[in-house]
Each structure stands twice: as structure tokens, then as C-alpha cells.
Fold each of these.
Amino acid sequence: MSKPSLARGTRDFGPEIMVKRTFIFDQIKTVFQKFGFLPIETPSIENLSVLMGKYGEEGDQLLFKILNSGDFIKDVQPDDLQKGPKAVLPKVAEKGLRYDLTVPFARFVVMNRNEIQLPFKRYQIQPVWRADRPQKGRYREFYQCDADVVGTDSLLCEAEIVLMLHEVFEKLNIREFVIKVNNRKILSGIAEVIGAAGRESELCVAIDKLDKIGKEKVEEELLQRGFAADSIGLLQPVFSLGQTGDDLFDVLKTWLSASEEGMKGVEELQAIWKLVGLYGLHSPKIEFDPTLARGLSYYTGAIFEVKALNVQMGSISGGGRYDNLTGTFGMPGVSGVGISLGVDRIFDVMEELKLFPEQARQANTKVMITNFDEECRNHALPVLTRLRAEGINAEIYPEVSKLKKQFDYANKKNIPYVLVIGPEEMEKQSYSLKNMVTGEQSQGSVEQLTAILHV
Amino acid sequence: MSKPSLARGTRDFGPEIMVKRTFIFDQIKTVFQKFGFLPIETPSIENLSVLMGKYGEEGDQLLFKILNSGDFIKDVQPDDLQKGPKAVLPKVAEKGLRYDLTVPFARFVVMNRNEIQLPFKRYQIQPVWRADRPQKGRYREFYQCDADVVGTDSLLCEAEIVLMLHEVFEKLNIREFVIKVNNRKILSGIAEVIGAAGRESELCVAIDKLDKIGKEKVEEELLQRGFAADSIGLLQPVFSLGQTGDDLFDVLKTWLSASEEGMKGVEELQAIWKLVGLYGLHSPKIEFDPTLARGLSYYTGAIFEVKALNVQMGSISGGGRYDNLTGTFGMPGVSGVGISLGVDRIFDVMEELKLFPEQARQANTKVMITNFDEECRNHALPVLTRLRAEGINAEIYPEVSKLKKQFDYANKKNIPYVLVIGPEEMEKQSYSLKNMVTGEQSQGSVEQLTAILHV
């Protein structure tokens, strides 16, 4: 006999939370599908050869590895132990757990290149696993919701991501949010005009921390990384951009005029702004943020991040364009753009701001029938069958026991109606329906009560 | 650059298969909910202390274990290597992947005993992992769909399982199936009356193989297991039961009259038959099968198994009653009964018998708008927005390219309608909608064409 526990950083989801999470997933799926994205799923288990080296050194360490089956130590020699875990790992594990949905998607595209039609729009909603240190809001097993288009560099895709985000958050009742947008090419242009051409990756890593550590520390870090003081001086507009009343695109075009790449980035940004308007979205909640880099070096064009307002919470969505997602698997030149929604954080935002609608706060069972005694029960069973045939989620209390206990059960399970079928009701074939929220009682035939239950 | 591959025994699901699988899951969920079951989810990763020892020795071996993070070999001594994998395992792995949904559910019930209301009806649809040798129809990662009621021994639950199975398969268009029913107490009674009281587990294991190895081999195995020849002689009715015209329950009652336990089993069986009728299910597809044991020693009452007819396939569903599911976690006396649906096999049955309805064979996108040139595109974008606002899944081809290529795309993606917006259509504000299945063309305003798309 063991006292059971959850593995660290993992969670159970009981019915109440499941109903709310399902509500979120359903809204997201509906919107993704409305925009023409189709679902795929990839296995939780991938070969380590697919996963390793794709997420940087830290990612390699955070990958959960699966021990080989059978005699997993047969190839391990005593002196391997002294060489350390890196030497032993390839001998004891060849599989790992999915770390994100992007790399498995790239593998999927490459392996199915002859079956799928480009441009390929897919969405994917599945858990991922990371051996991170668990903390508030950070779990070792959590869901990602990704939508990507690959095989086209049309900026319509970027505009549709902006539209899609608006529609998702509207459906989720999250009205106060901002979509921050940047462009990797603008970052490249900035690197160029400050005299640090080609070093935008390092620049990104440092600037990305602006929110967390402030301007001074960012400058310090840049100095440490070997950026010249002059370069850092030329970087100043990045810290004030968007805070002045000037037209952003004009300011950028002036600043970056010497960089072809940078100018292209500004044009792309401007095109997205224009397209969003052409689609008919007025006062879009988008904001250019030149400090947005998301630490991810594989973005090559637009970069997105969504913050919910009025609540302390990291970004609830992020994404961007990448030009060479599948190159690592031998299929170069496939450009794509995608967005990932953080369901756990969205859930927390909705809980904190009390945004879940009634339908996501009710259990799925609509009515419980009481169980008086065998005779009443036998009379109740066909009634139950009729309710279900009407599409009403219904159950009968499985045992003959005190009515109070049965009502308590319905109450605890948030069942909104209880149908009482006792000896009297049975005789009259007129049953008593109690609304558990208002306390209201209705009397009538199955047809009459069904009408109430259908409301 | 690596050539990517799938881990052995795992699968990708592309959009077409996903749409079909989602259809199956949705039907099952709808029925489960209609019967008052609520969803829960448990983590994929569980502590090995929760999983080990629950599935027998073979199960322990088939569990996927997860390598500890960081320096996983720090506690391994060179002489541990000589002791073999069993000595090393506890030092390098403390977590594993979910092997079924039953043990995690038992853990959930015990850990949430103060929050949940008994009787507790839950359903759970999640993947499980087994390091089995992959073969046709057997995967290392596959979904289970379970519904269980715990905390009551009411036979209404057994009857509802029978009803639920009928409704699930009806919704899935699988009309030809049989639900085989047995009862562990009948097996105990049989053991008793053949003079092998208490040995029903061994009897189960042998009899369970009747379908696979035949009567003679079963008898051989029983001899080897030390059953007396006399006992085996007395066992004969088991092989002919149900093949005679006599009333089954009468035959059983006569045969097992000396066994109190056996008689109780027959009564339970008879009660389930009666209840199913009281619910209003006429000609239920249920069949008593005294050789059904499902090899699982934890069943204590009813045992269920469903076979699809007209197709070569193992059972597509199975389950039964267990009296001590949570005892292993220190919470004795919780009786439960449940059913598990094998989605992969159900999928294969439906494919083979061509049972998927049209809605499960269509992609989710309803209409694609063509992309002629920038001007036409700009005119098309608000049209696209209007279609989506009407709840129509719609997309625009993202690039300006040859119409043939655009139609090919729609065709390949099974999009049933293409809306052509060229210069002429733009000018007249009258667009051309092509039905990709019939080839039919309609001309009209957005309102007029929306009406067609809504059908």
C-alpha cells in the first residue's frame, strides 16, 4: 500500500476545471477552423535524434528522455559512469517527450511532403513536457495550441494571425489585450545602423530583457557582449520609439534608411497594418514594439506577442515568421508563420478576471432523477430514457437512499435540475421538477418538463 | 541535418484522419455526457511508485520509464551495472508514462476523496503508452476512452453501461455488434462446483484463451496447472452453455445451485438483463459468455466485452466491475464499474466497413476565395471577413498565382466551394461560386452565395 502523489510539476484536472479548459479549447479550435486551419496530431514520443540540438543546450537538458526498454544498461561500461551523464545518455535512451509543437510539425511536413498541399495550414493542440523547475504558473506538462501556415511568404498570413487573435480573445471574453508586433528584419536593420551588422541575435537576447531588467542593465549586458559604446549610443531610439507622438513608420524609415534589410522590415510591418484594416478590423489592438524579440533566434520576419491587460501575467500568446523551419530535416526554403496560445495562462487570466461564461461554469448533467424505491425506479427508467432521447444529459441516482443525500449529490455536482419521481408522482404521472438554483418547483408530464429542461 | 523518422510504434495523424478520429471522440463524449459522466484528465507522467506493481510483472516491464533530469547516474555504482537493470532502475528513474487510465483514476479518487462526491461518474479520454512490440493494430502510444462509476454497487450502473454502448455504436453507425457479458462470481461458482474453490483466477486465465487455442488446449493447460481430471470433467457445461435452446439462467441456476457465490452471480446477471429491458431497450445485443474473463484478475462482478461483427477484429470495448480499485492506495471498499472503448480498433472497423458519415469525410474549410491580383484581393478581404462573421469556415488563397494552382489547392484540401473574385466579379459585385463536387456554378451577391454556403 503506497500513499499516492502527483509527479512534481504535473496536475490533475477535475470536472469543473475540465469544463472550463474545454471551453477555451473549443473556442480556439472554432476560430482556427474558421480561418482554414486543419488539425494534426503528432506522437508524444519522438526519437531523440529529432529533438536534440533543436532547442539550444538548455533545451537539450530540459528534454524528458525515455529509458530504453529491456536491459537498458547492457551497453554501459563502468568507465562510462566516470565520463558522466552525457556519455551514458546515448547508451540508455533513444527517445524523448515532445518539447514543443514546432519541431514535430517540421518533422511532419518533411515526412509528408508528398502528401500535403502547400501552403499548408495546420493547428495542433497537444501537451508538451519540459523538465523545468516547477513554480507558480510553470508546469512540467502543459498544453500548447499552435496554428501555422507553411509554404508561403504572403503577408496575408501575418494579417490573419492578428485577426485570429482578436477573434479568439473576443470569444474568450478577454477584451483588454495588446498584440505587440516586431520584425526580425528591423532588428537586423538596427544592428546594421548602429555599426554592429549581423549581430542582431545578441542584440535580441539583450533587448528582449528590457522589460525584466531595465534599460541600464541591458546596456551593461551589451557592453559585456562587446558592443561598442558608440553602438549603444546609437541604439537610443529603440528605447523611446512608440512613446512619442510621431508616426512610427516615418521615424523608423528615417532611422533605418541606410539598411536595406531594415527598410524591408518596416515595409512588412506597414503592410500588415494596412492589410488588417482592409480585412475590416477597426482600431486593432496592435502595437509596434522594437524591443520584442522573444529570445528565439529562428524568427526571420514578423514577431508577435500578446499581453492581457489589467492582470499580472506573462505573455498569453506568441509567434512569428521563420524562413527555414524544415531545413534542419533536409527540406530548405519552406517559409512559415505561426502563433502559439498559452492555455494555462489564458485560463488563469479568465479565472482572475472572472471571464468564464455561465456555460463554462455548469457541469454537463442537466437533470438528476431521484431514486425512491424499486417500484418508483422502475417507473423512472423509461422517463430517463425519454429525456436522454431528447438530447438532455440526465442521470438517475443509482441507489435507493435518503432524498437529502440525493439532493446533496445533485447540488455538489452542480446539476441544475432534480426530477422527483415518488409514489404520488408515479400514480399521477405528473412529476415534480426542482430548479436547484432558484428553488422553483414545476409540476407536469414528461413533455411539459422536457420543455423547461430544453430552455 | 538529420533524416527524420517516427519513434517505433508511434503515428502522426494528418487532417483527414484527425477529422475522423475527432468524429469518433465527439460521439463518445456526447453519449458519456448524456449519461451523466463528467470529464477528468490526469498527467501523462506519474511517479513510478504509483504505476509499478499494478499491472503484473509484464506490465512493469512494458511501462515507459523517464530518465531523471540532470546527473542521472550520480547514484549508480560500477557494481550496480553487474547487478543488472533492476538494480539500476530505481537510481536513474522515478517517473513513468501512464499505462492505462484506471490506475491514475484510482489515484485521483484517493487524492481527491474530500472534494469529489460519491458516487463519482467520470470519463477520461487520453493517450496511454506501452513498450509492447509494435505490430498491425498495436501501437506504443494509443488513446483510451474510459467511463467509470465508483462509490456504488448499484446494478443500474451495469445496465447503463450496456445502454451507453448501444448508443455509442449506433451514433458511430456500427449496427452489428455483440456485447458479451459474464460475471466473476459465476466463474467463482464454477470453480466451487467443480471442486476447485478459490482457484477461479487460474481458471479464468485458462478459459480466457478458449477463443484463441480451443477447448483441448484449455483442458491441457488446466491439467498442467494442477486441476484434477474430475474437475475438468465437471467443467464441460461451460463449453456448451448458450449453444443449447434452454433458458440460460435456468441452466446456470441448476448447475451452480451448490455455490452461494455462483448463485449471486447468476442473480446479478439476470438483474442486468431485466434492467436493460426496463430502460426500454428492446432486443439488446447482449449475450452471456461464461468463457469471458478478459485475463484481468481485478474484476469482481460483471465483465463486458464488445465485438464488432462482419469484420476481423479483436474486441472494441471491454470493462467490468471491481470492488477494490483504490485499496492499493489506502482507500478500501470503493466499488466501481467501468468500460473502456478502443478508439483505434473502432476507427479500423469504421474504415473497413465504410461507416464514416459525410461530415467526418469533409475537411473543415467550407470555401476558398481566389486571389487574382492585389486589387481583387483587397476587394475580397472584407468579403472573407463577412463569410467568417456568418460562421462559415473560409480562407483566401494567400498568394497571387495561376487559377489552376489555386483550384488544385482547394481540391486537394477537399474544400467544397471556391468563390471566384476576379476583375469582372469585382466590378459587378456579383461573385461566382463553384461547387467543387458537382461542378455547378452560382452567381450572386455575398448574401445570396452565403445562403448556398449555409446549406
Amino acid sequence: MKQVIVVNAALKLPRGKLSAQVAHASLASFLSSQPNLQQAWLEVGMPKVVLSASNEEEVLGIYKSAQGANLASQLIKDAGKTVVSAGTITCVGIGPAQEVDINKITGSLKLIV
Amino acid sequence: MKQVIVVNAALKLPRGKLSAQVAHASLASFLSSQPNLQQAWLEVGMPKVVLSASNEEEVLGIYKSAQGANLASQLIKDAGKTVVSAGTITCVGIGPAQEVDINKITGSLKLIV
């Protein structure tokens, strides 16, 4: 079990903003997943990985792939009050789900640094 | 309603690691809060703020203050597999709770940049 959050790296968000958006994606995706998957993930300590996508189009494509695979996923758009324009896609949360299922979609992405 | 995550800035965590720890704190604190506060916070769009503390002692003090005020709060220690030593306190999540209650504890802290 794991959860993956894929970030729109083109935005080059500052650390605090990035962290808040990733947390938002993590919680939203968790809340949209099935109770048995939620429970299984909590029991193993909520492992999560933050990966990088090149731009908004890539994030959107990953979201659509996750939806097509029936994985819990939530696209996060910023409210636009501070750093970026309203409606900008900042990241997508996928899972918690089985690692093998998530890896089919995000397996080629790199860790954010 | 809001949630605050206070980060141990002394660790100078890389962006991906920081984001994952903040997400962990956000979700853990959410799950430990009362259902009526969870619901009220979800209804206003889960507002959250990421703040900075100077070191582990300050993060621990904030956690104790939150516990003393009966606010939902969760101290996050790293598993130590990657960037920092096992057991290192990386951050604390507080709330969701009423803003006035959280501000009594974290009102003097600065946004992380």
C-alpha cells in the first residue's frame, strides 16, 4: 500500500506552499478512497511518495490515467490567493492503493528534490 | 476553522521530504480530531498553514501546548530511512480547530519560505 502525490514542477512553488498543496492532495485523495484501502494504508504507517511532473498537462494526464484505472485520485487546483493564479493545477494525489497499481501510472516519474 | 503544521526548520529538509512530512502531520492530526471539527473544516475547503519553528525543542513545546489546550495534535517523527536519523521530530500538526484557539499557540510563528 502507498500513496503518491505528483507535483507540477513547472510552478517552482516555494517550500511552504508546496507542502500545503501536497498535504491537501494527500488528504483529499485519502478521503476519496475506499475504507478498506484507507485502513490497510493506515496500518502500515501511511507511506507516501512525492514525485515530479514537468508541467500541468503531465499532471492532468496522470490524473486521467488514475481515474481510468479506478484508483482514488484528486486533482488539486490552487485558490489563487497567494502565489499562483486561481485554478492553476498544483498537484494530484493518487491512492492509497496497491503499489503495483499506482506504479503502472507513476512508475517512470522521479522523486521531487 | 484551520489547521496548522509547524515544521522543525533546523533540519533544512529537502522539498520532497518536507512535503511528505507535512502531509503526514496534516492527515494524522485530522484523523485525531473530533468529527464535528473535521466536518466544519472540510466544508470550508481544508485551509492549512505551514509555519516554521527554530528547532526540535520548539516543536515539542508547541505540541505540549496544543495537548494542554485539548486541541487535536500529532507529533511526527521520521522513520529515518532516508534523510534524517530515526526518531527525529520533523513537525507537528494541530487541528483542524477554531482559528482563535490555534492562534493562541502558534500566533507568533512565521510562515515557512
